[in-house]
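Need the bound structure for pyridoxal-5'-phosphate, inputs here:
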Amino acid sequence: MKIPFNLPPHSQNEEKYISQAIANRKLSGEGSFNKKVVEWFKAHLGCEMAVVTPSCTSALEMAMVLADIGPGDEVILPSFTFTSTANVIALYGATPVFVDVDPKTMNINVDAMEKAITPKTKAVMPVHYAGVACEMDRIMALSEKHGFVVVADAAQAIFSSYKGKPTGAWGHMAAYSFHETKNIVCGEGGALVINDARFKARAEIVRDKGTNRQQFLNGQVDKYTWQDKGSSYLQSELAVAFLLAQLEEGEKITSHRLTHWNQYHQGFADLEKQGRLNRMQIPGDCQGNAHIYYFMCKTAEERTKLWSFLKENDIQATFHYVPLHSAPAGIKYGRVAGSMEITDDYSARLLRMPMYADLTKEEVSYVINKVHEFYK
Ligand SMILES: *Cc1c(COP(=O)(O)O)cnc(C)c1O
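Answer from helper R.:
Posting the output first, comments after.
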């Protein structure tokens, strides 16, 4: 049995919708599938606006432009995240300020975040690791007190929720990813969700190469011109047609993943009791989306050994991230605030199990059995 780490999900209507997009003779980001997906986000999240983007990275870039992030500004984020979260800050000449994570969730430690706030703090970027939401109520309360913008990296968080509200509805802005490694995919893709109306008017201009083309299309002006900084942040109809098919089956895809997640969680309970490993946890305020199933090995050496053992048995487990504060660009562009003890220790011991919607019960059992065999 060969078990890859990830396989992109497949839904019923992908080919049909792409054919419709082709027949519509409208392939840019202004087509009807883009409109439908934006409506889907508004209905699902209750957001003010959404832009389907070429990636989560580009959605985060667009958020930096909207939050007016520039030289002299600081943006606080966890060091334990994917490169994109910090890269967009450095790209606009601001300083990423790295803080430690909470060992329970690997999400930003809000106490450490609060201590890292300075008069230069222009934004914070919580990352919902594994799709499990950060403590957004505390983060939003701090943002009200200190006046910074909250841009959530919700790359992994589609169909998860916090305090009964979809995770992407938290924060002034939130960015999703639909890269093929995520729960819902369209190859390469993302979305910027705008939950705060003050960013709406500029967002229409920033997404469209800095022009007021939308006002022109609405018949509000008779020609469009360069109005503001911007870029090309719209996604092609072909990818968005695929995305709509996936979103329509999103609940089903998520429930398959949750079934596998629960099977892993029960399957490793005895090993946790025996003190061999520690399973991931989901706080009571959070409903997960099974983006990742991970556990913590006891030591970094043991993780490497287990990873190799699984690989020999055709199971592709993976680890991540190399903490950004110790990566070459992190050292060059960023700064550390406070201790990085949890990030350094836990990131060296975390191991992720294969996870995708099409896994079978037998395949998950096979992985669970091999992990047990290792610890025998
Ligand atoms: C996947 C991921 C991204 C990048 O998403 P792209 O759509 O590939 O740009 C950013 N942040 C986190 C936390 C991710 O997991």
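Comments: The radius of gyration is 21 Å. The longest strand covers residues 49-53.
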